[in-house]
Design brief:
- By secondary structure, the protein is α/β, with parallel strands linked by helices.
- The chain is 30% helix and 22% strand.
- A four-stranded mixed sheet has the order 3-2-1-4, with helices on one face.
- A hairpin with a 2-residue loop joins strand 2 and strand 3.
- The longest helix has 17 residues.
- The radius of gyration is 22 Å and the shape is elongated.
């Protein structure tokens, strides 16, 4: 019942993160105007605060219009000429805002990160990746996640699913997606065959400040909501923990992203690489397994997230 509740609320209340709808190809599907009245037995309206008993959530189209004490009689509400009234009886249920998962890879097949499986490092073809993303997006929503941040896929699959959700063609969580993540030659996630310029761009491979700056511009233009950069090696590619990207390359990535109005997330293990990434201006450190006291201090100073 809890999963069903979150699915109902998520379908109504997405998108959650404002800039996720920036790239929406194909046009939106026109929805009927709705006035939804949700009677909640207990409601966690504000995370960290005590749950409230016997509350009514009033939703107009995809936005919460009000939260009122008691079980409001729908007949007392003003209904627009073209509005459809929907009453959801959750008087015996606990209702809470949708959850957000800040680091997912929707295009991967479920279970592909299990240790020792050969498919762990396999790159699914775009069509297979899009199917994976569609399935995983729906599974995430059913588990209560109304927004996810996808940090690394390809140039097409997750963007296609994100845009279909934004256009109302399929049901799923709000997706904020980086698309292809950036690595240096021979770095974490960089395929060995990425030598030609077009192949390097598709694989997210760059070397030197100018090439990395160009790649960021390309990624934003082709649909990235944010930039994911891999400044150290990684476990799944067996490339170790040490720093791969230079401080100059990191600064170029962040500067180009800032000019495009988007943020940068840094996959980083090594403490020195974390410091360089923070000094470059990244908005978040992903994983950060070897984060030290200096890195924590700098993160707090710069309001960066782990």
């Amino acid at each position: 019942m809890a999963a069903r509740l979150l699915l109902v609320l998520a379908a109504l209340l997405s998108p959650v993160l404002g800039y996720a709808g920036a790239h929406t190809g194909g046009g939106s599907v026109k929805r009927a105007d709705t006035l939804m009245v949700i009677h909640a037995g207990r409601l966690l309206a504000v995370p960290g605060a005590e749950p409230l008993a016997e509350q009514t959530i009033i939703v107009r189209n995809d936005r919460i219009a009000a939260v009122e004490p008691g079980f409001t009689d729908p007949a007392t509400l003003e209904l627009g000429k073209r509005e459809e009234l929907i009453v959801v009886d959750l008087k015996s249920q606990f209702v809470l805002p949708g959850l957000m998962d800040a680091h997912v890879h929707l295009a991967r097949a479920t279970g592909s990160y299990q240790l020792g499986l050969p498919q762990m490092n396999a790159r699914p073809a775009p069509a297979e990746a899009a199917v994976n993303a569609l399935v995983n997006a729906r599974l995430s929503l059913a588990a209560g996640f109304t927004a996810v941040r996808d940090l690394g896929s390809d140039q097409h699959s997750v963007f296609a699913v994100r845009d279909a959700i934004n256009a109302g063609k399929v049901i799923g969580p709000t997706i904020v997606a980086s698309g292809t993540s950036i690595a240096v030659t021979a770095g974490h996630g960089a395929p060995p065959q990425s030598y030609a310029p077009d192949d390097r761009a598709a694989a997210g491979v760059c070397d030197g400040a100018d090439e990395c700056r160009t790649l960021v511009r390309h990624l934003e233009k082709t649909g990235s909501d944010l930039i994911k950069v891999k400044v150290t090696g990684g476990f799944s590619s067996n490339t170790g923990l040490r720093q791969h990207m230079t401080a100059e390359e990191m600064r170029a990535v962040v500067e180009a992203a800032r000019l495009r109005g988007i943020k940068v997330a840094a996959h980083a293990y090594d403490p020195a690489a974390i410091i360089d990434a923070l000094n470059a201006g990244v908005a978040s450190i992903e994983h950060g397994f070897l984060l030290d006291a200096e890195g924590i201090r700098l993160m707090r100073k710069q309001n960066a997230f782990l």
